[in-house]
Write a structure and sequence with these properties.
Elements (H helix, E strand, L loop, with lengths): L11 H6 L5 H16 L10 H12 L8 H33 L19 H8 L3 H23 L4 E5 L5 E3 H16 L3 E6 L2 E6 L6 E9 L1 H4 L5 E9 L12 E9 L3 E7 L2 E7 L5 E5 L10 E4 L9 H12 L3 E2 L5 H10 L4 E4 L9 E2 H14 L3 E3 L18 E2 L1 E4 L1 H10 L4
Parallel strand pairs: 3-5, 11-12, 11-13
Antiparallel strand pairs: 1-2, 3-4, 5-6, 6-7, 7-8, 8-9, 9-10, 13-17, 14-16, 15-17
Helix pairs in contact: 2-4, 6-7
Length: 422
């Protein structure tokens, strides 16, 4: 039949200098370009030994299918050029998709690469946490997180007969998680005082203990029946400062456990923020180390959106997120909504206050522990009033509430400017 014209995607010079090729070479060229375009979709299956041997035999045979060695070499060079053009097209297409889809695109999901070996909890603590008592405290807290994980797996979410001190109906899993943490606090030789968000009173547990614990046993009670991710938040102060009169900056460590398809814990160590994942046999492995939150972000989690009806600046801020094509990532659970900043390495969570929609977050139980984590990872926080760090707010009451903006520094600055006028 009539000779087909070369691909229009190739430059004219390539058409003029392309050596005469056999039908087999043309087929090879087409297959190469096609394979280059499809390679990013899924890796090819390994070839069987017999197929590899046959391919090697064909490649080594000079003048295959009547081609001279020179023509074969030219065809090979032509194929490489075609593959390069296909690769360039793929890169251009990926950039266009990133621009169109933002954080919804697959490339934003994760950049973590599998390792041959993951350090254990003990190995990391030995290198990255000098205080031996604090090491013991970490181990006890993570043992409690394992028990909470197991409780969430086997218990149905039902309403408990009792209510907390605020008159809120408690869920069975709330009570179980809180009981497990109280069991830890009352039996530990390391805990001096403790307080739970469910019962915001300071309880002395061991006169010889070293640390003051404040925890939210199961943050996300309103979404746990949906089987969405929830978590445990813990702030740890030394008994030398205590809690009342101290600030979030006085914490000696903080950690947050996230119960989702996996159980992960983010904690502050001597040199930054680390993620540990609960693995086989309930053993913890270090899955991320020295996490760094970027200054810029395109992911937003806007809490207390009812306040936007009264606070014009918050309404304008949300409008800015939408018109600038930020990606909404918000579940209504503080733990997953902030913890995504440690895995995506970007993001902002905002929770301002207004007269009709006052602040709900507890300073000691939620804002301060998360504030330490985010700031040690290079992020920024705002107390939602003065625009200063939430870690500098003095704790004057166990149940003290606070507005909050937390996450990528540029976006927290934007919150301060647009919402607070700072």
């Amino acid at each position: 039949g009539p000779r087909k014209r070369p691909s229009a995607d190739l430059p004219p010079a390539a058409h003029r200098t392309m050596p005469a090729m056999s039908r087999r070479s043309c087929t090879l060229l087409g297959a190469t370009a096609l394979a280059g375009s499809a390679a990013f979709v899924a890796p090819s299956a390994p070839r069987a030994p017999a197929a590899r041997a046959a391919a090697a035999t064909r490649a080594e045979a000079p003048g295959a299918a009547g081609q001279s060695p020179g023509a074969a070499t030219g065809a090979a060079a032509f194929c490489v050029a075609a593959a390069g053009l296909a690769s360039a097209r793929r890169r251009t297409q990926r950039r266009a998709e990133d621009a169109a889809y933002g954080a919804s695109h697959t490339s934003f999901y994760t950049d973590a690469v599998a390792k041959d070996k993951y350090d254990t909890l003990a190995e990391v603590l030995d290198k990255k946490l000098k205080d031996d008592k604090l090491k013991g405290m970490v181990n006890e807290l993570l043992d409690a997180c394992v028990k909470i994980t197991e409780a969430l797996r086997i218990n149905l979410v039902t309403v408990n007969d009792s209510a907390n001190t605020f008159g809120d109906k408690q869920l069975t899993v709330d009570v179980i998680a809180d009981d497990l943490l109280w069991d830890l606090a009352k039996s530990s030789k390391l805990v001096y005082e403790a307080s739970s968000e469910e019962e915001p009173e300071i309880v002395k547990t061991n006169e010889d203990g070293q640390f003051v614990l404040c925890w939210d046993p199961l943050d996300g009670s309103s979404i746990v029946d949906n089987n969405w991710a929830v978590g445990t938040i813990v702030g740890v102060w030394d008994k030398s400062t205590g809690l009342i009169g101290a600030t979030g900056r006085d914490q000696v460590m903080s950690l947050v456990a996230l119960y989702g398809p996996r159980t992960t814990v983010f904690m502050t160590l001597d040199d930054g923020v680390y993620e540990f994942t609960l693995g086989e046999g309930n053993q913890w492995i270090c899955s991320r180390e020295t996490i760094e939150i970027k200054k810029e972000c395109k992911i937003f989690a806007p809490a207390n959106m009812r306040a936007a009806q009264e606070v014009e600046g918050y309404n304008k801020l949300i409008e800015h997120y939408m018109t600038s094509k930020y990606t909404l990532r918000y579940t209504g659970g503080l733990v997953p909504d902030v913890c995504q900043q440690f895995t995506k390495l970007q993001g902002v969570f905002t929770n301002p206050t207004s007269k009709a929609s006052p602040a709900k977050l507890r300073l000691a139980f939620e804002a301060a522990p998360f504030g330490r984590l985010v700031e040690m990872a290079g992020g920024k926080t705002s107390d939602g009033v003065s625009g200063e760090s939430v870690l500098d707010v003095k704790i004057t009451a166990v149940d003290q509430r606070t507005p909050l903006a937390i996450g990528s520094a540029t976006e927290v600055d934007r919150f301060n400017e647009m919402v607070l006028g700072k």
